[in-house]
Amino acid sequence: MPDDNCGGRVLALDPGKRRTGIALSDPSGTLASPLETVSLAVSALVEHVAALVRLHGVGSIVIGLPVSSTGEPGEIERLARSLAGRLHDRLGIGVVLWNESLSSWEAERILAERPGRAARGRVGGRAREAREKGEVDRLAAALILQDYLDARAKGEPGQE
Question: What is the pLDDT of residues 68-95, one digit of tens each?
Fold first, then answer.
């Protein structure tokens, strides 16, 4: 798949079994923001992403790729790779697979520390509540995207 030198905003996906978190960069490609969480089958997700690409002037897509400790591809890794191929074929723009290790864990930690959530000390309860609302998924997508944008700004090579 081609690199992301197409210009425009960058859209990121954090695919999962039930939900996909989506994040979007600012027009300069510097800052990532959570956008939405959707629960769609792959074909519907591809069409939804295509609509977002048109709406926001997206020039490239980053997809979180879970890397297993065993080296064997898991279900979500296969889903991410399949989604990347389908989006590239459908949209003809750069699609980058980016290591998303621990992004959901980090998102849960960030959300659990926010003031105004469930009672202090109930990290699991707050994280569960946030996950139910899809907050974790879209924040994880934003963390993946920010990591990618920061690496790109430093001129670090892409992952895949």
Answer: 777 777 899 999 999 999 999 999 999 9
Whether residue 109 is contained in a domain is answered as no
pTM, two decimals, is 0.81
Sign of CA dihedral 98, 138, 154, 70: negative
63 forms beta bridges with: 13, 97
Q: Is residue 88 assigned to a domain?
A: yes
* In-domain check, residue 73: yes
Q: Is residue 58 part of a domain?
A: yes
Six token digits for residue 140? 């994880």
Residue numbers of the domain that contains 82: 9-101+141-153
Measure the CA–CA gap between 54 and 9, rounded to whole angstroms: 11
What's the alpha-carbon Rg for the chain, to the nearest Å?
Answer: 15
